[in-house]
Specification:
Structural class: mainly alpha
Number of helices: 35
Strand content: under 5%
Number of strands: 6
Radius of gyration: 61 Å
Largest sheet: 2 strands, antiparallel
Helix content: over 70%
Strand order of the largest sheet: 1-2
Shape: elongated
Length: 825
C-alpha cells in the first residue's frame, strides 16, 4: 500500500518536471527497510496543523467542468435591460455590470493540495522541520542500537525519506495553485479582478508572477471569461467585449500568445459543437457564434496582430471571404446600433455625422458596407414618413384636405436635399428612393400621394418652377416612370384648366377681354399647360354646348348665336366647328337618310325625300356636309348590293342584282343627291350664264368699235380725188362684205346663247347622279370584272326557265346599255 501511494505521488510529480523543488531519486530499498514516506507526510500534516483525511478521487475533466483544456461554463445570453454600465475607455460605450460570474463552481483539491494551500508561505519552514525531525529520529534510533554504522544508516535513510516526501508534497503546490486561484475568484466579476489579487494567491505557493510561473491557470480564467461574453444565438455583439477582454488581459498580465490560445480553444469548442449536434439550426447558430468570436478576437488584438496570432484559415479551414463576412456582419450591426442611438441619419446633424464617421473608422468598417447601412436606415426613415402620409391621405374628409400628408412629403423631399448635400460627411449620403423597400409594390398609393401633392400645389392656378422641381423629386422617390408621372400631371392640370376656364366664363372676364385668346394663353402659361391639350379641352366644351342645344333635334337662331359666342370665347377654329356639326347635327340628317335608303327602290316616296330635306334644313347643314353624310350611307348600300351579287350562283343572277343597284341609284340616290347639290348646280349654271353674258358684251363692244373705224375711213375716202372711183368701188365691196360678216357674227352669238341655256338646263336636270361612286371602295380589277359581266348580260339578254329545264332567252333590251353606262360611272 505504501509503495502504491508513493508511485502515485511519483506520477503526479512527473507531470510537473519543471518544479524547482524536485529532489533526486533514492534507492527503493531505503523505502522498504526504513521509515515509510507516509510517516513523513503525516509529520508534515502535523506540523501544518491539518487533520488527516481520505484523499478524494481524481475528478474527470467532464466532472470538473473542463473540456479540452477549457472550462465548460453557463452561457450568458446578453445584458439585461436597464442594467448598470461602466464607461468604455475609448468611446461612450459601456461594459455591463451585474452579469453572472463565469466562475460559479469550486474546484476540489486532494489532501496534499489542501495542505499546500493551507501552509502558504510557511511551507518551507514545515519542510525543514520534517527533514530535521526525520534526521533526529534516525540518530536516536541509531544511538539505541549502540552501533555507529547503524546510526549513520538510519539517520541517512530517514532523512532521505523525509526529503522525498517533502519533494512529493511540493509538486502538489504547482497543481494546487491554479485551483486555489480559481476558487479565490469564485463568483467574482472579472472586471474587478486585478493582478494584485492574482499575485497574492500565487505568493502562497511561492510564485511571484502567476502569469509567468503558472500561465495555464491565468489562461484558464481568461478562457472562462471569453467563453461567457461571446453572444449566443441571434444575440448581437454589443461592442464593449473587445475592450473588456483587453482590460482583463492587462489586469492578469497575460501574454498575447497565451490569450490567443484561449481564443483558438473557444473556437474549437464552437466548431466541435457544430459537428456533434448535427442539426441545421444548431449548425447555423454555431456559425453565427463563431463569426462573433472572430470579430471580438480581431478587435481585441487588432487586425495586424490577429492575423499572426489567430490563424483562422489554417486551423478551421475558413476562407478570407468568410472572415471578412464575419467582420462585416458584426461591425455593421454595431455601427447600425450606434447610428440609431445617436439619430445621425434621421437628423443629419453635422456633429452626429462626424461622430458616426469616427466610429466607422474605429470599427474599420469599409465605406461600401457603411454606405449600405446608411442607405438602409435612411430608406427606413423615409418609408416611415411616406407610410404615415399614405395613411393620412386615405382618411376621408369633407373637403379632401391633404395638407398634413403633403407636409410629410415635403419633409421627405427636404430630407433628400440634405442627403444629396451631405457630401463626404458619411458614406451613403445620397438621394433616397423607395426601390427595394416595403412601399415599392404600393404603386397605387404612390400615385395617389403624387396626385394629391400636385393638386394642392396648383390650387393657386399656377404650376410654379418650385412645384415642378418638387414633383420631379417626388417622382424619383416613388420610382415612377416619366410617362406615368406626366399623365398624372396632365390630368391634374387639365382639371385645373377647366376650373379656371369655367370661372373666367362665369365672371365675364372672357366677354370683356379684347382678345379672349390672350386670356386663354395666360392661363396656359401659368399652368405650363400644353396649348394643343387646351385646344382639345375647348373643343370638348364646344361639343358639349352643341349637344345641349341639339337635344330638341333642331337649331334655332338663339342656338346659333349661343354657339357663336362659345366659339368666339374659346377660340374654336372652323374645322373643329365643322367636325362637331358633322357629328352632332349630322346625326339627325343621317337618321333620316338611313330611313329613306332602307326602304328600297319600290317603296321610296317623295315624302321620305322631303323628310331628309327638312332634317337638313332643321340642323342647318351645308350642302357639302349633307353630301358627305349621304355619300357614306349610299356607299354602304352599294357595297351591300355587290356582296349579295357575289353570293349568287351564276353570272346572270349576279348581273340582275347589279341591275337592282343601278335602279336604286337612279330612283333613290339621284333625287336625294340632287337635293343637296341643286344649289351648287344652280350656282354653276348662273356662273356659266354670267360668263356668256360677259363674252357677248365684249363681242358687241368690239363690233361697235369696228363700225366706228369703218365710218371714219369712209369719210376720209370721200374727200379723195374723184379719179379713184375704181378704188372706191373696191372699198364699197369690202364694206358690204364686212357688213355681211357682222350679220353672221350676230347669228353666231345667238346660237352660243341658246347652247348655254341648254347646258344650264342639262345641269339643272341630270338623268342620274355621278357624285357618289365606288372608286375608292372597289379596286379596278373588281370593277372591270363587274362591268364585263354586266356587258355580257346586256348583249345576251335575260333568260327565263321553262318546264323540262329549258331556258328561253328573252329579246334583248336596248335600255340595258343605258344602265351599263350608269354602271360605268
Amino acid at each position: 500500500r505504501d509503495r502504491t501511494h508513493a508511485a502515485s505521488d511519483g506520477d503526479a510529480c512527473s507531470t510537473h518536471a519543471h518544479s524547482p523543488l524536485e529532489a533526486p531519486s533514492f534507492p527503493r530499498i531505503l523505502s522498504r527497510q526504513f521509515l515509510p514516506v507516509k510517516m513523513a507526510t503525516q509529520a508534515v500534516s502535523a506540523v501544518a496543523g491539518i487533520a488527516p483525511q481520505q484523499a478524494a478521487p481524481a475528478q474527470s475533466a467532464k466532472a470538473s467542468g473542463f473540456a479540452s483544456g477549457g472550462v465548460r461554463l453557463p452561457r450568458v445570453a446578453g445584458l439585461a435591460k436597464g442594467s448598470a454600465r461602466v464607461k468604455h475607455v475609448t468611446r461612450a460605450s459601456a461594459t455591463p455590470q451585474g452579469r453572472p460570474s463565469p466562475y460559479q463552481f469550486e474546484k476540489d483539491m486532494d489532501q496534499l493540495e489542501a495542505q499546500q494551500s493551507a501552509l502558504g508561505q510557511a511551507r518551507l519552514g514545515a519542510y525543514g522541520v520534517v527533514v530535521g525531525g526525520a534526521l533526529a529520529v534516525g540518530a536516536a534510533a541509531g544511538t539505541a542500537t549502540g552501533s555507529n554504522a547503524a546510526k549513520a544508516v538510519l539517520t541517512a535513510g530517514l532523512g532521505a525519506g523525509a526529503a522525498v516526501a517533502v519533494a512529493s508534497a511540493d509538486k502538489k503546490r504547482v497543481s494546487a495553485a491554479p485551483k486555489a486561484l480559481w476558487n479565490g475568484m469564485l463568483n467574482r466579476d472579472p472586471a474587478t479582478i486585478t493582478k494584485a489579487d492574482v499575485d497574492a494567491i500565487g505568493a502562497k505557493f511561492g510564485m511571484k508572477d502567476m502569469s509567468k510561473d503558472c500561465p495555464e491557470a491565468v489562461t484558464e480564467l481568461y478562457d472562462a471569461y471569453l467563453q461567457s461574453i461571446v453572444p449566443m444565438g441571434d444575440d448581437p455583439v454589443q461592442g464593449w467585449e473587445p475592450e473588456a477582454l483587453r482590460n482583463f488581459r492587462q489586469q492578469l498580465g497575460l501574454e498575447d500568445a497565451d490569450a490567443a490560445n484561449a481564443h483558438i480553444e473557444v473556437g474549437r469548442r464552437l466548431f466541435r459543437k457544430r459537428i456533434e449536434l448535427g442539426d441545421k439550426e444548431a449548425d447555423l447558430e454555431s456559425r453565427r457564434e463563431f463569426q462573433k468570436l472572430v470579430f471580438i478576437s480581431t478587435r481585441t488584438f487588432g487586425e495586424k496582430q490577429a492575423k499572426f496570432l489567430l490563424p483562422w484559415n489554417r486551423i478551421f479551414r475558413v476562407s478570407d471571404a468568410q472572415v471578412t463576412l464575419a467582420m462585416k456582419e458584426s461591425a455593421s450591426n454595431l455601427f447600425k446600433n450606434h447610428v440609431n442611438e445617436s439619430g445621425a441619419i434621421n437628423t443629419l446633424e453635422a456633429g452626429a455625422l462626424a461622430a458616426a464617421r469616427a466610429y466607422q473608422q474605429e470599427l474599420n468598417l469599409k465605406d461600401v458596407d457603411c454606405a449600405e447601412v446608411v442607405q438602409k436606415l435612411a430608406q427606413d426613415y423615409v418609408v416611415s414618413k411616406v407610410e404615415a402620409a399614405s395613411e393620412l391621405a386615405q382618411v376621408r374628409s369633407v373637403n379632401s384636405d391633404f395638407t398634413e400628408a403633403n407636409k410629410l412629403l415635403t419633409e421627405v423631399l427636404d430630407y433628400n436635399k440634405k442627403m444629396a448635400a451631405g457630401g463626404d460627411a458619411l458614406p451613403g449620403l445620397q438621394v433616397v428612393t423607395l426601390a427595394g423597400s416595403s412601399f415599392e409594390d404600393k404603386s397605387g398609393e404612390a400615385n395617389t400621394l403624387f396626385r394629391n401633392f400636385v393638386t394642392q400645389g396648383t390650387e393657386s392656378g399656377e404650376f410654379s418652377a418650385e412645384l415642378k422641381s418638387s414633383a420631379g423629386a417626388l417622382k424619383v422617390l416613388f420610382g415612377m416612370g416619366n410617362k406615368e408621372a406626366e399623365e398624372i400631371v396632365l390630368d391634374v392640370t387639365t382639371k385645373r384648366y377647366r376650373e379656371l376656364l369655367r370661372d373666367a366664363v362665369k365672371s365675364g372676364e372672357l366677354d370683356k377681354a379684347e382678345s379672349p385668346a390672350k386670356v386663354l394663353q395666360s392661363i396656359c402659361e401659368k399652368l405650363q399647360f400644353p396649348p394643343e391639350v387646351a385646344a382639345e379641352v375647348n373643343k370638348e366644351n364646344y361639343r358639349t354646348k352643341m349637344e345641349q342645344v341639339m337635344e330638341k333635334k333642331k337649331l334655332t337662331d338663339e342656338d346659333v348665336e349661343a354657339l357663336g359666342r362659345v366659339r368666339r370665347l374659346l377660340c374654336v377654329p372652323k374645322d373643329v366647328v365643322d367636325e362637331c356639326t358633322m357629328d352632332i347635327c349630322g346625326a339627325v340628317y343621317k337618321s333620316a337618310v338611313l330611313s329613306a335608303l332602307s326602304v328600297g327602290t319600290e317603296s321610296f316616296t317623295p315624302e321620305l325625300r322631303d323628310r331628309c330635306k327638312r332634317a337638313k334644313d332643321a340642323v342647318r347643314l351645308t350642302d357639302d356636309m349633307a353630301l358627305k353624310i349621304l355619300k357614306n350611307e349610299v356607299v354602304k348600300a352599294f357595297m351591300a348590293y355587290i356582296r349579295v351579287a357575289r353570293t349568287k350562283q351564276n353570272k346572270i343572277e349576279q348581273s340582275k342584282e347589279i341591275r337592282k343597284m343601278v335602279y336604286f341609284n337612279s330612283t333613290v340616290v339621284t333625287p336625294m343627291v340632287s337635293d343637296v347639290t341643286k344649289a351648287a348646280a344652280e350656282d354653276a349654271a348662273k356662273e356659266l350664264a354670267d360668263l356668256l353674258k360677259e363674252a357677248q358684251a365684249a363681242a358687241k363692244k368690239e363690233e361697235e368699235d369696228e363700225k366706228k373705224e369703218a365710218e371714219a375711213k369712209a369719210e376720209s375716202e370721200e374727200k379723195k380725188e374723184e379719179g379713184e372711183e375704181a378704188k372706191d368701188g373696191e372699198e364699197k365691196k369690202d364694206v358690204e362684205a364686212k357688213a355681211d360678216g357682222e350679220e353672221g357674227e350676230d347669228k353666231k352669238a345667238e346660237e352660243d346663247k341658246k347652247e348655254a341655256e341648254e347646258i344650264a338646263a342639262k345641269v339643272e336636270q341630270p338623268t342620274y347622279q355621278k357624285e357618289i361612286n365606288l372608286k375608292e371602295e372597289v379596286d379596278s380589277v373588281t370593277a372591270q370584272g363587274i362591268y364585263q359581266d354586266y356587258l355580257m348580260f346586256c348583249m345576251q339578254g335575260d333568260t327565263v326557265n321553262a318546264p323540262m329545264g329549258v331556258q328561253i332567252t328573252i329579246e334583248r333590251d336596248q335600255s340595258e346599255f343605258t344602265r351599263l353606262s350608269q354602271l360605268g360611272d
